[in-house]
Amino acid sequence: MGSAISIAYSKKLPTLSGIRYLIKSSRSMMCRDYGCAAIPLFIIKFLVVFAVSLPLLTLSSHSYAQGTLDATTGEATTSETESEPQDETENRDEENPDSLETGVSLRNRPAQANGPVASEPWAKAGFYGFIDTRQRLGLPDQELLDKGLRILTTDDFPPFNNRDENGAPQGYHVELARALCEELSTPCTLKIAAFEDIPDLIANGQADVALAGLVNHPSLKDVLDFSNVYLQRPARFARLKEKFFRTDTKGLAGKPVAVRGGSAHEAYLKAYFPTTNRVPVTDLEDARQLLTDEKVDAIFGDAFQLLPMISEADSPIIFAGKPFYDTHFFGDGMAVAYGHNQTDLGNMLNYGLLKLAQKGRMSELYARHFALDVYATY
């Protein structure tokens, strides 16, 4: 901008004799066109001086911003060096690192959306966890770390928890428990328990935490507390591959949809898909049979509970449409359960989950254990 000003105003400004010449010639032209009596001389002088002064005033304002006005030649000149405006966010970025480990400024890293950074190889798996990796948490209590964790899980919810051919526990939650203990450098033991017994076992002090797909439901608020959510549990429709339809109120109007009777999913259908023909079933296996026999057009249920029937080889069933989230009906999502009012233990669990998410381990575990992305739109 400075060089442009220098070029535009490189000519000398009009001298006093030049201004007098302009007044005289202007008066002659105006007298010729309008008559001298109609044009007083002082008006002509005013107009000419104003016209000549306007560029000078404009140039002076530019000279304050971009350079100086040469008093001898009347030319505008610019400074040889112009300071760059300082970025006010530069220091703030350095004071607010997005990772407890690296402290690297956000300006130098790809944007994050509640998941591992794009430079992590497992971020390419397409899954971004539900843990905000930009948060800061204090270090866990060392006494708790030395004490270790007694962890509960189940063995009847693949691919989260089940047993291998040798009877050993395996699955997503088993691997998450192992990764969490390694990250915290704390000794851990893992025990199998019935899902319905877990709240009482923790409340009675027979275990410290549970990784078993529990959600923070109001019915458990006086017994258990929960870590930050590591996986959401959306609801989904499933259909036969060759039976396409839209999964909105218009597309499902009048269609028979199998759903577990008395469940939160049936209540959700009643509230948001009132024109759907709900077909209550006892369990999802009954719903599957109705679907394959084409007695219903779809199944509605928990996405992870539908996943096994969809993941089977040559399965005729697929996810339909998008996932549905509603904390009122489906809870906040999967979290680590621990004893009520044990704040330090909760902080330790959240710290471990945060570190795993920042390193991309949460994304790795998800990609390794789930054949299909339950959060995608199909």
UniProtKB/TrEMBL annotation:
Composition bias type Acidic residues, residue spans: 81-98
UniProt-listed InterPro entries: Solute-binding_3/MltF_N
Keywords: Membrane, Signal, Transmembrane, Transmembrane helix
Xref: Pfam families: SBP_bac_3
Gene3D superfamilies documented for this protein: Periplasmic binding protein-like II
Domain of life: Bacteria
Disordered: region residues: 71-116
Residue ranges crossing the lipid bilayer per the database entry: 34-57
SUPFAM superfamilies found in the cross-reference section: Periplasmic binding protein-like II
Low complexity bias: start-end ranges: 71-80
Sequence ranges assigned to domain Solute-binding protein family 3/N-terminal in this UniProt record: 148-373
Protein name per Swiss-Prot or TrEMBL: Solute-binding protein family 3/N-terminal domain-containing protein
